């Protein structure tokens, strides 16, 4: 967290006012990292597939959507209040001793006995009002998942894109949940971004597609460069399954705070489309042109968090290690480095004139101007070269380009590799080509 702030990945929202609980802002490097992850997802889910279309539905939706989806009645956590100190807890908070609502229950904050209420259901959706009048009829919700925007548009997309089942719709966008126990940095926040894909299939084929998407998604996650031993599957048991799901697997990562989900693959059956058909009174079934059968498609969902995936990538890349050799002072030196996959790194290279004289800045600026037409690059002429390398190590920048005394003589520069610390000498005019090759993948 300290590195994320220091280097400009993530800041607390409204920090100068003391911060807003579990809401975070992405700084100059964070916005690039998250964008690279989202673009990679979009490329693999939409552009590289003939059977998936993209969508960007609005955050605000008709309130009946959330009745049909089950969120008004079912998207709740049981909460208890302390009548003495007025604090509120999840009923399953492990710090609570005794049974809430009974005299033996003890408040984990003020320690009073018998002051905890019996659990009451609390809805996690954010409410707001549409239009000028703040009355019950004007209540609408900030969407708690992007999926519903896909379901209510499924016929629009099907008809306009001329897709046939099986096909999918993908969307990246914000979702909001009034989480009761948020925390762990950007792991659980109240405003977050989801990358969701709903795949519509013929009933009976959903198990096969479910397995297909499980394999695809794990392979995509591994493609982010995450270490194998930090990844595992977790199948939901009966108690964990969401109100809509028949089967569900999470991809979990071993965070510093334990194994936790960052993506889910869900078999949602025809739950959502059937309910929308019922509540909206509009036919949402599909006529199979080959067999003339009518059916409501089953849905296999892949649902990932862009913020949680960013956290996985950051945690997995973070290393503290000893540097030896030329770059280290006598006896070695500690460095913090983000070993980000180069294609995900916010900055692809940094340009360093060794000193600010003897024609080095001029050449360095020329190279920087040339590079930034192709990549996101950084120019740094402040402080010792060692300090500049360390700053870029912390930013996860894979290449450092140094313009030294020799450069102005023979128009070559050194390119330092963040991970191996090896330096190659490259002709100044070939740096773009060199980096393009290195950054592929
Ligand atoms: P959890 O049990 O951790 O709250 P969930 O099972 O409710 O998650 P889903 O509804 O399946 O999560 O959401 C799919 C994905 O959306 C999650 O894997 C996660 O990456 C992301 N996500 C969900 N809630 C949050 C949140 N409060 N903050 C950040 N990301 C979230």
Topology:
Layout: H1 2-6, E1 10-12, E2 24-26, H2 28-47, E3 52-54, H3 63-68, H4 71-74, E4 76-81, E5 88-90, E6 120-123, E7 127-129, E8 139-141, H5 147-151, H6 154-161, E9 167-176, E10 191-201, H7 206-223, E11 231-235, E12 247-255, E13 258-269, H8 271-280, E14 286-287, E15 294-295, E16 298-305, H9 306-317, E17 318-323, E18 333-338, E19 349-353, H10 360-372, E20 377-379, H11 385-395, E21 399-403, H12 405-410, E22 412-417, E23 423-427, H13 431-439
Parallel strand pairs: 3-9, 19-20, 19-21
Antiparallel strand pairs: 1-2, 4-5, 4-6, 7-8, 9-10, 10-16, 11-12, 12-13, 13-16, 14-15, 17-18, 21-22, 22-23
Helix pairs in contact: 2-9
This protein binds adenosine-5'-triphosphate (ATP).
Overview of this protein structure:
With 441 residues, this protein is an alpha+beta fold. The protein has 13 helices and 23 strands. Helix 2 (28-47) packs across helix 9. The two termini are 28 Å apart. Adenosine-5'-triphosphate binds next to strand 10, strand 13, strand 16 and helix 9.
């Amino acid at each position: 967290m300290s590195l994320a702030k220091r280097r400009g990945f993530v800041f607390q929202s409204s920090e100068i006012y003391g911060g807003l609980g579990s809401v975070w802002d992405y700084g100059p490097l964070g916005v690039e990292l998250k964008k690279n992850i989202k673009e990679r997802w979009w490329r693999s889910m939409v552009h590289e597939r003939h059977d998936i279309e993209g969508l960007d539905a609005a955050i605000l939706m008709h309130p009946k959507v959330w009745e049909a989806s089950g969120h008004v009645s079912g998207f709740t956590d049981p909460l208890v209040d302390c009548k003495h100190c007025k604090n509120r807890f999840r009923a399953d908070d492990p710090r609570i001793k005794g049974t809430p609502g009974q005299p033996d229950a003890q408040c984990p904050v003020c320690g009073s006995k018998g002051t905890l209420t019996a659990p009451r259901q609390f809805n996690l959706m954010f409410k707001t009002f549409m239009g000028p009048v703040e009355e019950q009829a004007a209540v609408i919700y900030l969407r708690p998942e992007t999926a519903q925007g896909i379901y209510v548009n499924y016929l629009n997309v099907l008809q306009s894109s001329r897709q046939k089942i099986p096909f999918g719709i993908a969307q990246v966008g914000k979702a909001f949940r009034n989480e009761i126990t948020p925390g762990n940095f950007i792991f659980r926040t109240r405003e977050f971004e989801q990358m969701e894909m709903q795949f519509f299939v013929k009933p009976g084929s959903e198990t096969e597609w479910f397995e297909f998407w499980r394999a695809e998604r794990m392979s995509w996650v591994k493609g982010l460069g995450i270490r194998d031993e930090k990844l595992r599957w977790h199948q939901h048991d009966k108690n964990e399954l969401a109100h809509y799901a028949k089967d569900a697997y999470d991809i979990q990562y071993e965070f510093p705070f334990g194994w936790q989900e960052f993506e889910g693959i869900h078999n949602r059956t025809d739950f959502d489309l059937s309910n929308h058909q019922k509540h909206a009174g509009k036919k949402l079934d599909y006529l199979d042109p080959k067999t003339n059968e009518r059916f409501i498609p089953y849905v296999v969902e892949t649902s990932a968090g862009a913020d949680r995936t960013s956290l996985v990538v950051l945690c997995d890349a973070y290393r503290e290690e000893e540097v030896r050799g030329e770059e280290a002072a006598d006896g070695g030196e500690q460095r913090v480095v983000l070993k980000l996959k180069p294609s995900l790194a916010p900055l692809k290279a940094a340009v360093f004139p060794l000193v600010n004289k003897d024609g080095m800045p001029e050449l360095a600026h020329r190279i920087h101007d040339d590079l930034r037409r192709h990549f996101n690059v950084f120019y740094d002429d402040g402080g010792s070269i060692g300090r500049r390398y360390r700053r870029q190590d912390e930013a996860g920048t894979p290449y450092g380009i140094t313009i030294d005394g020799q450069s102005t003589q023979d128009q070559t520069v050194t390119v330092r590799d963040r991970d191996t610390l090896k330096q190659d000498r490259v002709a100044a005019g070939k740096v773009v080509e060199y980096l393009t090759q290195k950054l592929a993948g």
